[in-house]
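DM from R.C. (forwarded with permission)

"hey, sorry to bug you on a friday — could you get me a structure for this? deadline for the figure draft is monday and I only need the backbone to look sensible"
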Amino acid sequence: MRRLTSEAAAYEPLEQLRWGSEPVCPHCGTVGQATHLQPVNGVSRATRTGKPTERRVWKCNACRKQFTVLVGTIFPGTKIPVRTWVLVILEMVASKNGLAAREIERKYDLTNKTAWFMLHRIREAMKRDPLAGLLSGTVAADESWYGGKPQNQSKAKRAPRRGWMGTRIKTDKPVVFALVWIPARARFVPV
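My reply, with the result:
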């Protein structure tokens, strides 16, 4: 959350996930032929309504069309800031028992209908390939810690430390995360 300080900063991880190092034009499929269109004031550009926007716009040198990382995803046409979308997706992935629309409504100052719509769009996107083919049917997920009692460890090893998403971990034991499905798999998760 600290890294996503602005709307423009929320576009960068999406671009990295979708394209890697070179942007790909969604219109013609050309790789590496796009240039970033820098706003005149260096921060934001004006829209048709006159409101400033910080979205990162690219222009393909092959087909001469403009595009953003949001073209062809669940995000285009939304009036919800991309920063809010990314934060809700992160919360949804990190939560063990799922998220309620009312919780998103309160946290991000949205209407209940908007929060419900966001959560359903994200869930529908999770059904699409390539995510849909990874696990199917009933999948049980659980985590545990492996190792001895903390009081039997040296004081330096049992000191609390920060884990994933900034949560405090009260033990220095390795985390084991398991997904039970046919075939069942388990592995150590780096903290």
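R.C.: lifesaver. The chain has a mean pLDDT of 76.
me: no worries. Residues 36 and 84 are 23 Å apart (CA to CA).
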